[in-house]
User: Fold this.
Amino acid sequence: MKITKENVFYSFCSTNKPAVSVDAPATIDFETMDCFGNQLRKPEDVMEEIDWDRINPATGPVFVKGAQPGDALKVTINKIALNEKGTVCCLNGEGTLGERIEGSHTRVTSVSDGVVHYVTAGGLKVDIPVKPMIGVIGVAPKEGLDINTGTPGKHGGNMDTTMIGEGATLYFPVAVEGALFGFGDLHAVMGDGEIGVSGLEIPADVNVTIDVCKGKAPEYPVLETEDYLAVIVSKETVDEACKCATELMQEMIAERTDLETADIVMLMSLLGDLQICQIVDPEKTVRFVFPKKYIPGLTF
Ligand code: CA
Ligand code: ZN
Assistant:
């Protein structure tokens, strides 16, 4: 099954009309546009001329039969196939260094053989290995909420998290019947923080497998890889997100082991990494990452 890029939405909302309805588990190909709705694809394309109503398109949504509020939607990212070029930008007033930039700047950059071929204005060639990731991914929030695809939260959304790549499995809290899952905003590469407000924004074809875990809704999205368990929290400030992410990881470990709280805290302090996902979106996103191998059986 394939969902083409004509099926897009711009806010996570319970009233979105599903692009498809599937039985779980389902393996699906998604065709995604970049975060600019593919409007900055040639060197002469400029930000001043883009239609801002077409920013951050997410492909979908998928109605997953049997997914009910209280369940976790499990999404495994099997394969990301990147387009042959991507776009990075920066502009006045945006990002941590926005006041040091005049106007807007874009670089349309070729991507081949696993390498981003960035070239500076002065001609310096900077080859960067690709590290493909999904910027916007999530499910509809509870009825009555309408969260634009540029904003992250409990439902997922614009989390801009470098760990959301091939081989990762995400667990989202289902808040409405069918979950209404979708994603877009792929990056060929991005640094933690996304300080200049953009990764290497790129269209892509992505293969994912979706399933439902009954009654296992996490509070915020949880990410699992072969080696790590991570919780991804978005709040108004980085400080608030850090506190909440550590609390949720402590609770997750407590529910899955018979360790005393003090031991969990000490092991989290010794082994866990608090990492910044992004600090440029309407809410700031951090993750607490814990290596699974030290606690036998630790898994979502
Ligand atoms: Ca993004
Ligand atoms: Zn992006």
Observations:
- The helical segments are 238-256, 261-271.
- The first strand starts at residue 2 and ends at 3.
- The first helix runs from residue 238 to 256.
